[in-house]
What we know:
The protein is α+β, with helices and mostly antiparallel strands and 509 residues long.
Amino acid sequence: MCGLxxxxxxxxxxxxxxDGLTVIQHxxxxxxxxxTSDGDRVFLRKDNGLVRDxxxxxxxxxxxxxxxxxxxxxxxxxxxxxxxxxxxxVNSPFGISLVHNGNLTNADTLREELFREDLxxxxxxxxxxxxxxxxxxxxxxxxxxxxxxxxxxxxxxxxGEVMNRCKGAYSVIVMIVGIGIVAxxxxxxxxxLVYGTSTQHGKTSHMFAxxxxxxxxxxxxxxxxxxxxxxxxxxxEGNVHARACASSPRLSPCIFEYVYLARPDSILDGMPVYxxxxxxxxxxxxxxxxxxxxPDIDVIIPVPDTSRTAALEMAxxxxxxxxxGLIKNRYIGRTFIMPGQSERRKSVxxxxxxxxxxFKDRNVLLVDDSVVRGTTSRKIIELAREAGARxxxxxxxxxxxxxxxxxxxxxxxxxxxIASHRAPDEICREIGADRLIYQELPDLIDAVRGCxxxxxxxxxxxxxxxxxxxxxTPQYLQQVxxxxxxxxxxxxxxxxxxxxxxxxQEKPG
Length: 509
């Protein structure tokens, strides 16, 4: 997952893009970048690190212009270099800068086509650079030998060809120098992308972002989501153009956005994330009440931060006291890049501390958003027992994670997922809990869909192995596995444990 922002404004946009990126920092902490344009030239600053560390005053004053794009990136297997920080840029045609959230599932094929047929040399292994070059090639093909300024039709035709060639998940914002800013979303709408405006002194500014919360903080109004296969272009005069660029789009957003990735104060595809998590807690509480008639639970404690909302609603449904018993150290740094399992286990102690009085001589129900590897869950349960808990029960607001996500979340290799080849009772023993309660997939879908009722399908592939794009083969999953397993990552010097060192991305719950 990554975070995107694009603004075409009535005033310089550097500060607004910076402020927006800090709000969606939870979507990526590996690198940050901003590129702006004054209509003639482009100005770029990007580097590895957090937004606050990458940009200094000297950088900000150099980011001139009323149009720009910004990006925060989290590290994925094999992509840890500064060169792969975004935005990416090509100088022809016109000068195009691109930021991307998602993952192209046919990236290897496209890379070969770009070199052999389109005569384009790529400098990184990033599929975002592939996307940019495909777009640039198709825009040049659409324009032909014309020297005229590109029209919205030219841009939309090029985006249509991108959608014909590129498979997988992609939410994209593009800045075309002297032409305008364009945003588009894949035909399934797997990753989020929203559009909003701000009007001051009779002048309207336009903004695109991964999450609506980025608009809230800088005073933009959320107008709507970009729909699947739709492209929206704002030209240099501020005129807004929109078109569906592929046939038969079908909205199938990634349900893990609501479980874990998005901030609770965001609204995605019309659904308030906070309310979906309330619903998750309610459904999980009702399941526990159905299956466990006389639970001997003294207290419900969330694993901070994302699970707080669900845990509080569970406590309400079950009429059991809610307590804060685990405190997160927010200043420990990026502990999810570690050389192996031993360091991963150690980091949990550095990341979380217990309030002993909330555990001592009590039967405790711990609530987390999900269980991925199980490493963190096991260590937290150990902490609870060391603090004096008599019994430790564990609840997951998501169903068992059994399959890798191929649409932009760097989950571990399938064989490293604790639920991939284990039944719930085996997982319970593996993590050391006295009882384990998982959310049912239909209940999770109901929790999210219940906030709008208009979405008929979600991407739930990490829970059931059903990939909405329909092009994921066993061979492709084997390639994913070979890139994501611990040994491969350690060979690359880039051992990642996203989603398993509790909320390492410092997002609020």
